[in-house]
Amino acid sequence: MPSPFPGMDPYLEGYLWPDVHSALAHKIRQQLAPQIQPHYVARIEISVVEDESFSADIGVMYPDVEVIRTRYPATPDDAPRGAGPVITAAPMTLALPEVRLTHVDIRDVAQNQWVTSIEIISPVNKREPHLSRYRQKRHRVRQADVHLLEIDLLRRGTRVWTYDGMPSHIPYLVVLTRSGAQQMEIWPIRLEDQLPVLPVPLRPPHEDVALDLQAAITALYDEAYYHLSIDYHQGPPPPECSERERQWMRELLQGL
């Protein structure tokens, strides 16, 4: 069964997101590789970080975070008095979830130079301390004379862009910053919108190639049978939608 949503499905933004994120990176490479060869290659890059501020997402992104209780060996009752501080039981601790951050890099074949970075924004990128780290990374990419295409398909969290005039109260956003450009190309996306076909820039004399974001999301939804993991009779993961969006979703999902 295909997703009932014409564009991004907000029900994919919860605990399914890590799987969606990884699958989307592979779909992007699958689309681009035939278009950019033989002069360029698309490579998937993976980094692993600890989510240091994950507590707000327990039950949303992390439904099964394990609470680990660690205790020191019990102190004997007959320990000599005055022998020093008595070691007491350790407090309850939480294991920090590890998050795999996946993005797609385009490199030229001749010199293996970094040409374009395609970032799929993760929840960990949209809250501190990783929000500041991601913004620093954006600056480094721009300084490296690399095109940067950023795809934010998450309503939750703080937008990674800090510029005046950025669309607000828009569920999803795609931003393209071309190498050396003093302006950005922005695609604001509502729940009822189809996802756009995006230009992916290369180096002169080669023209942009096309990334069909909707085709990528549709294909990965179908291939993963996500509908078997989603209860559309319940509301989508946080944050809460506007009244207009809720009414639109009620009409869309009735009869499922």
UniProtKB/TrEMBL annotation:
InterPro entries: DUF4058. This is DUF4058 domain-containing protein. It comes from Entotheonella factor.
